[in-house]
Amino acid sequence: MSSSRSEKEKAVNVQVLLRCRPFNEDELRSNAPQVVTCNELQREVAISQNIAGKQIDRVFTFDKVFGPSAKQQDLYDQAVVPIVNEVLEGFNCTIFAYGQTGTGKTYTMEGECKRSKSGPKGQLPPDAGVIPRAVKQIFDTLESQNAEYSVKVTFLELYNEEITDLLAPEELSKAALEEKQKKPLPLMEDGKGGVLVRGLEEEIVTSAGEIFTLLERGSAKRRTAETLLNKQSSRSHSLFSITIHIKEATPEGEELIKCGKLNLVDLAGSENISRSGAREGRAREAGEINKSLLTLGRVITALVEHLGHIPYRDSKLTRLLRDSLGGRTKTCIIATVSPSVYCLEETLSTLDYAHRAKNIKNRPEVNQKMMKSTLIKDLYGEIDRLKAEVYAAREKVGVYIPKERYYQEESERKAMADQIEQMNVTLETNQKQRDDLQEKYNTRLQQCSDLSKKLEATEESLEYTSQLLATTKEDLKQCQYTLKEKDFIISEQKKAENALVQQACALQSDLEKSMHDNASLHSKIDREDKLNTANRSIVNNFQADLVGKINALCDTVVSFMSRQKEQLKYVEDLCQSCLQFYDKSLMELKKKVLASRALYISHIDTVQNVVRLHKASINGSLEEMSTLAASNYCALEEVSSHFSLSE
Ligand SMILES: Nc1ncnc2c1ncn2[C@@H]1O[C@H](COP(=O)(O)OP(=O)(O)OP(=O)(O)O)[C@@H](O)[C@H]1O
Q: Which residue puts its alpha carbon closest to atom 1 of ligand 1?
């Protein structure tokens, strides 16, 4: 519960709704083109413009958008029900209707609200606006909760920067009533940072049905002025406030009073005075209406742009609604527009105005609950004050003065009130200046303390520097002594230098000679170098030539070797074939020898046979022949053994 409460007390943006009314009869008759399109789901309003033959669309997004077909009930259920619930929870809430004359501000806030049109059991007519519906919701809720409560309403009109009570009592005589109606009510500081309208009637309402009487009474008194735009145009701002006190009991049995307030504001038409066509006698009226609207605009700008000074005090409207703009009240603005092209300029200005107002942040706070006893004490105080006033009137013990003097004093009082107001403004400015100066003073103080710290640091560093200086002076003395020493050394060195110079001259002439020799040596070396270079190039050429030749030789050797290999192979093949041929011949020869041997053996046998045959006959020669044959045989044996060996 406490976390949800702290959640609610955070900054919240003013809720801005847009309502576009349907075409009215005049617009339908003149066939006015439609330039406003509402997309309720996307919460967008698109304006189609034709500028120099080009179609230009502008789209605005709001918290809620209600198109021409939206009914009073739809707007109330979606936008106002949650606000009234918060009022019943103890918050202060404000609903503004802002827009051009004739776009439906009064229709939205009050609507058609005649008792004759109400349904059975106090049912509201379908055209009933926010005020009667809110009153009904409040009573329905409180009655369903069986709560002990009181509901008070006030209804005032702000016209030409003058406040009039729209609920002035009717029991006064006609003259007194007129007097009272004319008499503007002063706006006063309530001493708690707010303002109150002195003498404003607070009407206690006990049932929702009473609202018809109140609205009819108020509307009848509301001033309207005829303009070219709207015959019923309301040129004043109206503020209907409902204050609810609800009794609650704490667990400890203590009685607390919870208080919530709902302000319902129907602003005057937002259009420019030149466009509305008001002239002459109405100039001041328009100026004053504009003063309040202009100041409202300036307050919104100052809040949105976070300017330091918010000019609440510049108009009565902004003084009255101060808490609803950047204060602790929950605020909702219903911007109303016409769909027709004839109102395009004013529609765009309303949309811009409302869109900017979306950025105002309020910090709604739930009203502190009061102890019943405290409230009763306050009320007793009020009753005593009123009793004293009644007693003075009845007993004629009050102060009585002539009418002229009274008016004179009233005007003086008014002048003084204005002066006081002016002084309050000056006071506020002075306070602001004082705050600025205080801030500057604080900054200066801070700067001063910073400077003192810096001074301390500087003094410390000065002391350190002085010590450093003393040491440095000592060092300087030392340096001067060293310098003198060095001077002496330098003079001695100069003498030595002169001697060295003479020596150097002699050395220089030697050097020149050496240089000459050196030069000739150099020329020789150059020549040598050239020669060497030439030789090196010859050697290089030779080397290159040699390398070429060696490479060629290598190639030749390689080719020769390969040729030699080929030849060797050829010789080997040749030898192989020779050997084969030799083997073949040998085989043939062997065969022939074997054949010859066989032949010979057969011949021998034959011969032996012949010999045997002729043995007897040829004894002498046989012996001879046998020897010969034996020797032949031996020789043959030798050959055959030789062949068998070679095999
Ligand atoms: N949403 C709507 N639906 C039907 N009729 C509407 C709607 N809005 C406005 N009207 C009608 O348009 C006419 C002008 O509306 P209304 O008097 O509320 O305008 P206004 O903005 O209050 O003007 P003014 O600034 O002069 O008070 C009325 O007749 C009203 O019934």
A: 21
104 CB within 6 A, ligand 1: yes
CA distances from residue 492 to 348, 481, 487, 499 in whole angstroms, order as listed: 101, 17, 9, 11
Residue 62, pLDDT score: 95
> Which amino acid residue places its CA nearest to atom 11 of ligand 1?
104
Domain total of the chain: 1
Q: What is the mean pLDDT of residues 366-382?
A: 78
Indicate whether 282 belongs to any domain. yes
For 566, the token pair is 């080929």
Q: Is the CB of 230 under 6 A from ligand 1?
A: yes
Nearest to 225 by CA among 314, 160, 140: 160
Question: Given this model, what pLDDT does residue 103 score?
Answer: 93
CATH no. for residue 157? Answer: 3.40.850.10
Using CA atoms, how far apart are residues 469 and 459, in angstroms rounded to an integer? 15
Read off the amino acid at residue 219: S
The interface predicted TM-score of the complex, written ipTM, equals 0.97
Tell which wins on pLDDT, 98 or 160: 98
Structure tokens at 549: 């030749």
Atom of ligand 1 nearest to the CA of 70: 1
Q: How far is the CA of 217 from the centre of ligand 1 (A)?
A: 19
State in Å, rounded, how far the first CA of the chain is from the last one: 135
Q: pLDDT above 90 covers what percent of the chain?
A: 23
More confident: 433 or 46: 46
- Establish whether residue 72 lines the binding site of ligand 1, counting it when its CB lies within 6 angstroms of any ligand atom: no
The residue segments making up the domain with residue 41 are 2-368
pLDDT in tens, 255-275: 888 899 999 999 988 874 344
